[in-house]
Amino acid sequence: MLEARYLELVGSKVRIENAQGRKFTVPLTGFSSVDQDYVKRAYGLTLFAEPLPFEDDDGRGGVIVASAKGRVEVLVPTRDSYSELKPAYREVIVGESIAFGATITTGSESSANLLLTNGTLTRLGENTKLVLTALYQKSFKGTNQKAGDLKKEVSPSRIVLNLETGNLVVEARKLSKQSSFLISTKVAHAGIRGTQFKVSASADSAELSVLEGRVDFLDAKQLATVVETEMKATDKKGGAANLADMSNVEQAEVRQTKQATANIDLNRLANTVDGYAPKPNYVVKSALNMELIWCPPGSFIMGGEITGSYPVILTKGFYLGKYEVTQEQYEQVMKVNPSEFTGSKLPVERVTWHETVAFFESLNKKEGIGGWTFQLKPSGSMPEGPEHQYTTVGGTLLV
Question: Sign of the CA dihedral 337, 295, 303, 264?
Answer without folding.
Answer: positive
